[in-house]
Amino acid sequence: MEKEFIITVFSENKVGLLSQITTVFTHRNVNIESLTASESAVDGVHKYTIIVKNDEEKVANLVKQIEKKIDVLKVFCYSPSEVVLQQVALYKVQRGRNVEDLVRRHNVRILDIHDDFIVLEKTGHKAEIQELYQMLAPYGLYQFVCSGPVAIIKSRRELLDEYLDYVNERQKKLE
Amino acid sequence: MAFSGFSDTTTPQPKKDLPRISGSEAVIRSFLAEGVETIFGYPGGAIIPVYDALYDYRDQINHVLVRHEQCALHAAQGYARATGKTGVCIVTSGPGATNTVTGLADAMLDSTPIVLISGQVASTTLGTDAFQEINFIEITNSVTKWNCQVKRAEDIPEAIARAFYIASSGRPGPVVIDITKDAQIGLMDFDYKPTKFIRSYIPHHDIDNDQILEAARLINLSRKPMALIGQGVILGGAEQELKEFLEKSGIPAASTLLGLSALPSDHPQYVGMLGMHGNYAPNFKNRDCDLLIAIGMRFDDRVTGDPSKFGINAKIIHMEIDPAEVNKLVYADVAVMGDVKRTLPLLTEKITKCDHSAWLDEFRVCYNIEREDIIEPAIERRGPHLRMGEVVDAVSQQFNDAILVTDVGQQQMFASRYFRFKRSRSIITSGGLGTMGFGLPAAIGAKIGAPERDVCLFVGDGGLQMTSQELGTIYQSQVGVKIVLMNNGFLGMVRQWQELFYNKRYSFTELVNPDFEFLAKANHIPYRCVERHEELDEAITQMRESEGAFLLEVRVQREENVFPMVPAGQPVDKIRLE
User: Fold this and answer.
1) Chain B contact probe: residue of A22, A64, A68, A70 with most B CBs at under 10 A
2) ipTM of this complex > 0.95?
3) Which of A6, B239, B319, B415 could connect to B336 by a Cys-Cys bridge, CB 3.0–4.6 Å?
4) Phi, psi (5° rounding) for residue B80?
5) Predicted confidence (pLDDT) per residue in B442-465, tens digit
6) Nearest C-alpha neighbor of B259 from the set B213, B302, B215
7) pTM for the full predicted model
8) Which domains does chain A have, with CATH numbers?
């Protein structure tokens, strides 16, 4: 059965790694719903947040194939309930009383104001972002852009740190 | 230290006491530090500096000049699989690099350790579609274990050290190091440190004792177990550990194509080859097994047939070094992770000594059926034409400790079925990718890696013509490969499928061949052709006794089929004897 999964990939900062990661998906004909890349809390370690919809077994195999890439440190896979997910959307809309009402009611930030339009920012879940989109659409939405979700796990454990401690131990044993 | 991906842009200060050499010389000296003795390669514009450096080291490194870059890879594969060392290749940028892709893919699927150095245009012209520029890193992402582009001379030793470590450790595979021309020319202070650790790469995980205990418990409970030997045993050098495990457990053992020779063919517990054209017993008995112990194998579809029916009544223990292979195709009840060299002895220690001779007898009953229906007719010297089975059998009798190299197709299956193995690392064949044309260059590499052993190549008329230019390499480098050309004038395996599944519509599988005698003679290779049963043994003797390379063309029956056969996608116990 298809379910949504959040895959987080921690890797070394190596040129071309993104392409190696996406190859794993294309090779298995799995569509990436969204992908964001950023630095992580650990210096020099990059973090990718990838959302896929697929069955659990296939995703488990994907995770192992990504982790097999030499410059990938560790891959984790979560269900939506295990993480806090947020994405950010920007809306360029025509100015008007109705729009300003919506801004007040929906906890939206105003980023830029011009004579005839304003740029709004909404951070939240996909559903909230879509809801606001629907509401703004009748008032003249010029442009809309939305990021993919980023995720942070709810658990207290810092799984990447645990992995790095583990490999440091291994390295010490080798020396 | 974390791998920076060479993103550091600071200019290194010259270090005292270290020799200041070019990046190209650093390539060669890095090879020497890794113990490289032989390189397979082909020069070209963007790699000339490395070849220039190699010129000064001709007495320390043997460079084999192939005739096509694909064959540099296959030769390095043959070398690696015969010796257990990492195969090394050098090619130029652009077409030189793209020509290697088939070889890389083959090495990737068959877990062969390869380090390929490719030349690249100067870093200042990268991305400009310069002459012979191609984005080789992007192209090789899915056919390499690791790849890396080097743009500064001082980064060369670390990249090469990593390449050898990654290629040969864990589950081996091919690695590409793409070096720009300015990095080859640039000067650097040479200091080589072999890589022993990469924090993002764990070649084999810690052994989980609970999994060993659970595996032992299943083995001790099992009444009808079968061991499935894969190439992991050979790659791990675990042949002795395997023997001890089998002899204590009493378990019948079958082998995958690439696992052949890990256990001698005449071992009393050896029950034959798995797979589509494997032996009858290990396929037919698959559904009767209550336990399958997969030892360093990956449940390729040519082995499992319909994977959902594979070992349908059996629990499965998967002993594997690569976590990504576990539960990929067949669900493992117990996964024993790690190098089988280390896990097998731990398992052997925990199992009780057992005798499965009644169960083994059931395999013998099947073997006797196969012997009567298939094997004896195949190797018998009768009928109007020579046939592939009898040729393999006759060659195997005279070359009784040779390395068998095959191409791909019917001769590959006949050879792996009827050749007898005495010791490990005695079969070199393209299993995963099924690359026609693999045989001749792989045999060259094998012979160069193991000059003290006979190397027998079985190749079809189709496969030989895919890479026949390497006969020139055989002549130039004086490689004593014994080539048995099974000439049936067809692309035999495809023709067999057309006969069985496509209503005998032989669509473009018939070959009108050149005169192979001229081809051999043009390359100064002694040649003989046989067509009759009574000449066969004597011709093989002539080949064996002749010094150096020999091409024995055997005109075999035009339309012969390989049996038994598991029809594609069917459960393996549906194996057909005709």
Assistant:
1) A70
2) no
3) B319
4) -65, -40
5) 999 999 999 999 999 999 999 999
6) B302
7) 0.95
8) 3-78 (3.30.70.260), 85-149 (3.30.70.1150)
